[in-house]
Task: structure prediction
Amino acid sequence: MRILLASDHYPPFVGGAQRQTQLLAQELHARGHDVRVATVWHDHLPAASHDGPVPVVRLRQLRTLPVLRGPARRRDQPPFPDPATVAGLRRLLREFRPDVVHAAGWFAFSAAAALTGTDIPLVYSARDYGFACANATLLRHGTACDGPAPLKCLECAGDFYGRPRGWIAVGGVSGSAPLLRRRVTALHAVSSYVASIAERDLYGGVGGPPVG
Result:
């Protein structure tokens, strides 16, 4: 099977989500699958490389195009389908022709857009709450949030990121969630609690795709 893993970050950056994608890629390859990883483009890292036997492709965003990218720094995927990332993913889909795409983080919004018009299944890996929470933490004033709502999300994200960046994040997440909801074939969650929050905040409590 040809499997494309799409993730916000990947080693050499350190973190649980990065390591999870790396371990998944290596284990799938060890089991005989043809695996590629698509992740965020970064300054001073090659656009294409190999992590052992697994090819890794780093895709640009609009803000990392040569005329816009500014000083070198760690790059993050925006909370909406980025046109440059979507175009890069579509090229990769035509070249690699995956049987399934497994996406995590806000990269999943671009993956959902890139897969529009195809019959390639999209598995969404919920590793945090970024599918509905612009802060991805599901915390409001230090306690668990009871779900998204426009005014409180604008206040919370504005405090977390600063304004207007937080407001843009809220608009991106709320505007992109319907696309993700429509396009996801199956949901993988890191815990039963994360799965329950996805059912509540992404699917409105009316059920969703199969959860693994």
